[in-house]
Design goal:
The protein is an alpha+beta fold and 103 residues long. It has one domain. It contains one helix and six strands; from the N terminus they run E-E-E-E-E-E-H. Strand 2 and strand 3 form a beta hairpin. The longest helix is centred in the C-terminal third of the chain and has 26 residues. It is globular, with a radius of gyration of 14 Å. It starts with a strand and ends with a helix. The relative contact order is 0.14.
Length: 103
């Protein structure tokens, strides 16, 4: 993790892509509290992709909406969406586990 001068951090991580291939990624996450996050892929196959996460309070819960455009030079379009959805689900599950630790 590389903290930046603004409200962002650069994170490098690996994940498993189609066919079990290991994929190296690097993202820049910029916080816009309390609205949400901007996620920019700055390395790996989806470099240049951007997603905005919007947080909407709903009582004691928060609704999360993600919008953006994902691209890849190395991964076929029909494989890219499932891979990104898998990453988002993994991040959600990790967040849920971390939140349980604070309760």
């Amino acid at each position: 993790m590389e903290p930046q001068l603004d409200q962002s951090v650069v994170i490098s991580f690996d994940n498993t892509g189609p066919g079990g291939m290991k994929i190296n990624n690097k993202i820049k996450v910029t916080a816009f509290p309390p609205v949400g996050l901007l996620i920019e892929y700055v390395g790996g196959p989806p470099a240049g992709s951007k997603m905005m996460q919007y947080n909407t309070p709903q009582g004691i819960k928060t609704s999360v909406t993600i919008a953006g455009e994902v691209q890849s030079q190395a991964i076929a379009e029909n494989q890219l969406r499932p891979m990104i959805m898998q990453n988002l689900e993994r991040m959600f599950n990790e967040d849920q586990e971390n939140l349980r630790k604070f309760q």
